[in-house]
Amino acid sequence: MTNTDSKIKLDIKKIQLDFPILSREVRNHRKLIYLDSAATSQKPQVVIDAQNNFYETINSGVHRGAYYLAELATDAHEHARETIAAFVNIKPEQLVFTKNATESLNLLSYSFLNATMKTKFGSVVDKRLILNPGDEILVSELEHHANLVPWQELCLKTGAVLKWIPITDQGLLDYSKIESLISPKTKIVSISHMSNVLGSITDLELVGKAAKSVGAFFFIDACQSVPHMPVDFSKLGADAIAWSGHKMLGPLGIGLLAATDELLEIMPPFISGGSMIETVSMQKSTFTKAPKKFEAGTPPAAEAVGLGAAVEYLQKIGMQNVHNHERHLTKLMVDGLKNIEGVTIYGPTDDQDRGSTVSFALNGLHPHDVGQVLDDMGIAVRVGNHCARPIMDKLKVQSTTRASTYIYNDDSDIQALLEGIDEVFRFFGTK
Amino acid sequence: MTNTDSKIKLDIKKIQLDFPILSREVRNHRKLIYLDSAATSQKPQVVIDAQNNFYETINSGVHRGAYYLAELATDAHEHARETIAAFVNIKPEQLVFTKNATESLNLLSYSFLNATMKTKFGSVVDKRLILNPGDEILVSELEHHANLVPWQELCLKTGAVLKWIPITDQGLLDYSKIESLISPKTKIVSISHMSNVLGSITDLELVGKAAKSVGAFFFIDACQSVPHMPVDFSKLGADAIAWSGHKMLGPLGIGLLAATDELLEIMPPFISGGSMIETVSMQKSTFTKAPKKFEAGTPPAAEAVGLGAAVEYLQKIGMQNVHNHERHLTKLMVDGLKNIEGVTIYGPTDDQDRGSTVSFALNGLHPHDVGQVLDDMGIAVRVGNHCARPIMDKLKVQSTTRASTYIYNDDSDIQALLEGIDEVFRFFGTK
Amino acid sequence: MQLSNMYQEVILDHYKTPRGKGLQSPFGGEAHHVNPTCGDEITVRVLLSDDGKFIKKISYDSTGCSISQASASIMFEQVDGKSLDDFNKSSDEFLAMMQSKGNFEPNEDLLGDGISMIGVAQYPARIKCALLSWMAAKDAIIRANGDK
Amino acid sequence: MQLSNMYQEVILDHYKTPRGKGLQSPFGGEAHHVNPTCGDEITVRVLLSDDGKFIKKISYDSTGCSISQASASIMFEQVDGKSLDDFNKSSDEFLAMMQSKGNFEPNEDLLGDGISMIGVAQYPARIKCALLSWMAAKDAIIRANGDK
Ligand SMILES: Cc1ncc(COP(=O)(O)O)c(C=O)c1O
Ligand SMILES: Cc1ncc(COP(=O)(O)O)c(C=O)c1O
Ligand code: FES
Ligand code: FES
Predict the structure, then answer these.
(1) Same domain, yes or no, for A18 and A77?
(2) Which listed ligand is nearest to D38 at the C-alpha?
(3) Which residue has a Cα nearest atom 14 of ligand 2?
(4) Lowest mean pLDDT among B62-71, B323-332, B367-376
(5) Ligand 3 centroid from CA C82, angstroms
(6) In this structure, which residue's CA is closest to atom 3 in ligand 4?
(7) Is B372 close to ligand 3, i.e. is its CB under 6 Å away?
(8) CATH number of the domain where residue B340 is located
(9) CATH assignment of the domain containing D84
(10) What mean pLDDT value characterizes chain C?
(11) Mean pLDDT to the nearest integer, B387-414
(12) Chains C and D touch (3+ CB pairs under 8 A)
């Protein structure tokens, strides 16, 4: 199934035809140039069809019914789990379906609150999940709010203390600070694989080793990496990784958590209810094993099936090819931006390994004005703080303009962006 | 928009044509007779189309982008919120989108855990949300696990004590016990509007008054009522109600919580991350107002839009007409079952106001055998404990066979079920 | 009706008149298994020969669907008084048949009336029903042996 | 380009050479507002006449996009030295225009250069930009009056 991932050149024009939205016109009958895939990706027809097919032919109570349709729906749901699990090289039982990466990260953080409170009232839980006041949680200054606020909240409820790896003025992780930040008090290290603002890739080996050297749990926010490059869970040295389906061609409404068997075994349930119990009486309930232990209620089965189709689509292209294509676009973009006077790029600008998410400023112009004029030309970029306020503070800006690509973008999209930026300068007469 | 809800007769044959799945064949080229809508409903074409239209024409980062598509997507998302809010007669700000009813109920229960723990470490929270050991939570013995296990879990983490209104041997709430169960120690009363096993409707006025007489919060699991009858939040006297989109013709992956402004104001966030914050620094974050405070992360926007279309579809039919039609079917079903020797109906069998969910047993036969033979005739009923184990214990059975209807079922479906039951008896030679 | 592949006459017969039902004493090992999907249960008791190589007596009590009841009754007929070696061969053959999706030539010497259960393999939701008694018996034997 | 409806010449002119920017003392009331969607900010100061009926001096400092900067500058021109009554009329007219989706005949006497902002009303995401200074001014006036 997987493409051999040689350095082949992808036929992007052909790929574009798979995405219905790319043929729509936007403002002023302009062709849509979609450069906001870091926020959410577009969906190929096969994903839309897979969902429709679910609703039109097998929709029913997954894992609950014993009749024919329910059998088919359950099979499709679990087949999707197998496909997605294989994509990151784990067993299906290691893959938990959530609603988005944010829920996945909250699931992790609430495990500590729940374990800590359950012991207080006499339940037996694994000691490693218990937080005491003064215990420490380490994140970084370039986290998306989804990998920051849940840990702040956990601290507010347990007396644990949040520490962070600072970023340099260029917005890169200052690894030299890790040693002084990590100690036996550190219980959790949670870090993003790739910045959704700067595109920079974290040295996970270094951070993971530091975490493991003090016996801390090591979690990764893989929202921006799994969609864009080959990711093998077993090679990350992590206890768990979280990401979203909607950023990798899948439907909205489905997120993922991959974790070690051991972590899944010791974490108490997060959301509780039907389909995750073994026995229930009014007095007491016991829970099934992972992944179902963490999937209370009617699951987003059509979405899981849609995401399964998205993964198969990506596998056909080959993730190394996806990454190579995006590196090619990134180089075009970064080189092009460097050549425009009055543009400041935030984050890595040399040819190091990085993602295709590029934040920049047009000197003297406000990102919302930049975005507005680009939008008028059909170019969709993101302006704002990208749910990563602390990076903005460090860069001393309120917001940035961000362009990000995916497999359906081609050289002409980058060209359009670069020309669009010239037009923005002209429009505001600042050049 | 809303149908005048006179006692008109619905054109069910016409309605059936709106549901693509109903034209599929199941085992042995049988027509599908779907009698499991209490688990999940089927979806009309307009709902499938609304989702497709989202993905094919406006998919983008809702509430995050400033470009044209993002504007359209945000508008569509908020328009859906307005439609669904109006459906239960609340303001849009009172409607929180979750992933399913189970999450909605957990959101409520975690508010108490979070508030309780946050005060312990110095945050200011509303006192009414703080639980002390010995405080009481009142549910009933006929709850779905989704309205039972989260409260059990909350007790395990706070030392609160779970109490329950028992059910009679017929499986109905024993209201006479409420007075002795409720006291100033009662902080929360959470009860289902309609049983998903027996179809019985709770006397909410009575329970709500009891809750309010001691100053307890009053929550309602409205999973089985909102899809099947007119529900006006303002008339329920509740602080919050929870239900799911997928049981009311909407997509999977979207749940709802409707609550009073006051409760939404005082509840701390549940899942935290992006899109629900006001300011974030590494030290501290502040949160937006409801509903966004409770909607961290990328929302299931296509699903919300699909559910909006489902609600418009239901409004055109008129909820009173839906309810009347289902009462008609229920009467057919209950009368028919009564006439078959060897069938035991659980729950109300007289002509009282009740939902169309009917549980029963074929004496001497196991529900899974019953379901299997019916399935072979194309009839999809649910067998099992229906995520309501305590009712089973009370009925002294492991499981029941359950048939439930919706607007796409007609008299011939009930006839097929009744004939199917005769066939089951014949097949096993027990008649 | 295709269904008669699953509910063969001999299965319905075992269901209606189960052989060997009812727990017996003395016994060397007992196991209680629950089918998690439906909550149905079985208890199996085993008494082994002194050398631990033969099943002197197997007995059971159970509640459940026709498939699980018939399977227990058939198992009883097939393994009561047999060697552990025979039990293992039968049990392996039965498991293989259940996982075959129906694509299987069952060995009647090993399974007895159990060959009639091949139709169940086509109904994934019911495979656990058929396996319940065999799994419990396996456990009971392990426990009986542990006591030696 | 349709965009020139929003970014009219006069708006770009106010943006590039803002009138009255820079906080002044003395003042009777001050308000600091943040646009939650972008984080941009404005501080407005107001000094009222002794009878509280006239704006003797309005001043502001702000960071933000062209629309918000131009709007503040235009507001300054329109209301500095005017009566509170005039301020309220202008402010109401401006709000009405912004909520009109562009379907509006703005009154130039009340809005001055502000009539050029009608194009902004067609871009929902930018309406808050245009309103930011007016809302802050309103608050500053209330506070100045509270001090009386
Ligand atoms: C009464 C009741 N409550 C709660 C639920 C849980 O809903 P969901 O599975 O959509 O979260 C259901 C349905 O499964 C139900 O019938
Ligand atoms: C790095 C990173 N982490 C977390 C998230 C949150 O993902 P979601 O909004 O799908 O929950 C995102 C995207 O929004 C992201 O880019
Ligand atoms: S349904 Fe319970 S054992 Fe078959
Ligand atoms: S974008 Fe911030 S005020 Fe306009």
Answers:
(1) no
(2) 4
(3) A39
(4) B62-71
(5) 27
(6) D129
(7) no
(8) 3.90.1150.10
(9) 3.90.1010.10
(10) 94
(11) 95
(12) no
Tens of pLDDT along chain D (148 residues)? Answer: 578 888 999 999 999 999 999 999 999 999 999 998 888 999 999 999 999 999 999 999 999 999 999 999 999 999 999 999 999 999 999 999 999 988 999 999 999 999 999 999 988 889 999 999 999 999 999 999 886 5
Distance A94 CA to ligand 3 centre (A): 27
Q: Identify whether residues A275 and A361 lie together within a single domain.
A: no
Contacts of A147 in chain B (CB under 8 A): 273
Q: Give the residue from B299, B134, B107, B69 showing the smallest Cα distance to B190.
A: B107
Residue A38 lies in a domain: no
Q: Do A275 and B387 touch (CB under 8 A)?
A: yes
Domain count, chain A: 2
Task: List, in sequence order, every beta strand (DSSP E) within A198-291.
Answer: 217-221, 240-244, 255-259, 277-280, 285-287
pTM of the model: 0.96
What residues line ligand 4, using a CB cutoff of 6 Å?
A 368; D 35, 38, 40, 64-65, 67-68, 129, 132
Reduced to 3 states (helix: H, G, I; strand: E, B; else coil), residue B10 is: coil
Per-residue pLDDT tens for D47-83? 999 999 999 999 999 999 999 999 999 999 999 999 9
Please check whether residues A397 and A279 belong to one and the same domain. no
Model confidence at C9: pLDDT above 60: yes
Residue A321, phi then psi, degrees to nearest 5: -65, -40
- Contact in structure between B358 and B337 (CB atoms under 8 Å): yes
Buried b (16+ CB within 10 A) or exposed e, A35-59: bbbbbbbbbbbebbebbbbbbbebb
Counted domains in chain C: 1
**Phi, psi torsion values for A383, nearest 5 degrees:** -120, 145
Q: Is B223 one of the catalytic residues?
A: no
Q: Which two tokens stand for residue A150?
A: 């849940």
Alpha-carbon distance C83 to C98, whole Å?
23
Using pLDDT thresholds of 50, 70 and 90, give the confidence band for residue C110. Answer: very high
Residues spanned by the domain of D87:
3-145
Could you report the per-residue pLDDT of B404-431, keeping only the tens digit for each? 999 999 999 999 999 999 999 999 987 6
* Confidence check: pLDDT of A6 > 70: no
pLDDT, tens digit, 9 for 90 and up, residues B282-312 = 999 999 999 999 999 999 999 999 999 999 9
Q: Which of B309, B290, B303, B262 is nearest to B84 (CA)?
A: B309
Average pLDDT over residues B89-109: 98
**A99 CB near a chain B CB, below 8 Å?**
yes
Binding site membership of B368 for ligand 3 (Cβ less than 6 Å): yes
The alpha carbon of residue A399 is apart from the nearest alpha carbon of chain D, in Å, by: 7
Q: What is the pLDDT of residues B191-202, one digit of tens each?
A: 999 999 999 999
Instruction: Compute the distance between CA of residue A416 and CA of residue A428 in angstroms, rounded to an integer.
Output: 18
Asked whether residue B179 falls in the same domain as residue B70, the answer is yes
pLDDT score for B350: 79
Rounded mean pLDDT, A156-163: 98
The distance of D37 to chain B (nearest Cα, Å) reads: 9
Residues A338 and A380 in one domain: yes
CB-CB under 8 Å, B384 with C38: yes
Q: Does residue C65 belong to the interface with chain B, where contact is any CB pair within 8 Å?
A: yes
Taking only the tens place, the pLDDT of each residue in A226-247 is 999 999 999 999 999 999 999 9
CA C63 to CA C71: how far, in whole Å? 12
Going from the C-alpha of B151 to that of each of A277, B158, B191, the distances in angstroms are 14, 10, 11
DSSP annotation of A8: P
| Whether C and B touch (3+ CB pairs < 8 Å), yes or no | yes
Q: How many beta-carbon pairs below 8 A join chains B and C? A: 45
Q: Is A215 in the pocket of ligand 1 (CB under 6 A)?
A: no
Residue A46 and residue A308 in contact, taking contact as beta carbons nearer than 8 Å:
no
> Could A71 and C36 be called an inter-chain contact, meaning their C-beta atoms sit closer than 8 Å?
no
Ligand at minimal distance from the CA of C71 is 3
Domain range for B296 is: 51-315
